[in-house]
């Protein structure tokens, strides 16, 4: 994909819940996929995820219960970055480059690949359209616990690179190059 068709990212945002942003996102994604586009929808509404409800019954329930999502990606990436920064502070400059490179390689091989977090919507869209779903997190009993235990102050914002850890960025960028649209839903305080 090149030019105008490559990787548009559209965010559906509202401060207040119940405004219809998730339904608007689901409808827009469905229309785009029905127009032959490849679309990724991301449920960033971590405290009240619900995008999967609008895509049901076209998502595998077993995949929803076993597939990691945004929370796991951010948590694992943040944990890695904080450990790497701690390690870098304790090293001499000569040691730092080789050790950080080795740590980055270890994280990449043991981390979560973005494509393993995607669930394809089971629908035959016309003109080759495709719709992929990136959940807020694994839909199981552990989600609320993981969400409530994640330290957002010591997490992504403390890294000084916006709200997404650096190891996630290449994966998100690559995905935005492979699909026509990335649509995400966010609520609350930005």
From TrEMBL:
Pfam annotation, one family: AAA_31
Keyword list, A-Z: ATP-binding, Nucleotide-binding
GO cellular component: cytoplasmic side of plasma membrane; cytosol
Domain of life: Bacteria
ATP-binding found in the keyword field: yes
Gene3D superfamilies in alphabetical order: P-loop containing nucleotide triphosphate hydrolases (3.40.50.300)
InterPro entries for the chain: AAA_dom, P-loop_NTPase, ParA/MinD_ATPase
One example of a Gene Ontology biological process annotation: negative regulation of cell division
Name of the protein: AAA domain-containing protein
Source organism: Streptomyces luteogriseus
Lineage of source species: Bacteria, Bacillati, Actinomycetota, Actinomycetes, Kitasatosporales
């Amino acid at each position: 994909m090149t030019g105008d068709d490559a990787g548009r990212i559209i965010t559906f945002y509202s401060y207040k819940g119940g405004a219809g942003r998730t339904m608007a996102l689901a409808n827009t994604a469905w229309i785009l996929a029905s127009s032959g586009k490849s679309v990724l929808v991301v449920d960033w509404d971590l405290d009240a995820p619900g995008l999967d409800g609008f895509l049901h019954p076209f998502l595998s329930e077993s995949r929803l219960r076993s597939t990691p999502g945004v929370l796991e990606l951010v948590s694992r990436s943040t944990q890695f970055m904080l450990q790497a920064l701690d390690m870098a502070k304790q090293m001499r400059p000569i040691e730092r480059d080789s050790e950080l490179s080795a740590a980055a390689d270890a994280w990449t091989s043991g981390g979560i690949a973005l494509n393993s977090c995607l669930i394809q919507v089971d629908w035959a869209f016309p003109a080759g359209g495709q719709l992929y779903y990136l959940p807020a997190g694994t839909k199981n009993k552990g989600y609320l616990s993981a969400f409530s235990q994640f330290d957002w102050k010591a997490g992504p914002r403390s890294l000084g690179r916006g709200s997404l850890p650096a190891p996630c960025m290449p994966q998100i960028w690559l995905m935005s190059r492979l699909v026509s649209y990335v649509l995400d839903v966010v609520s609350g305080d930005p």
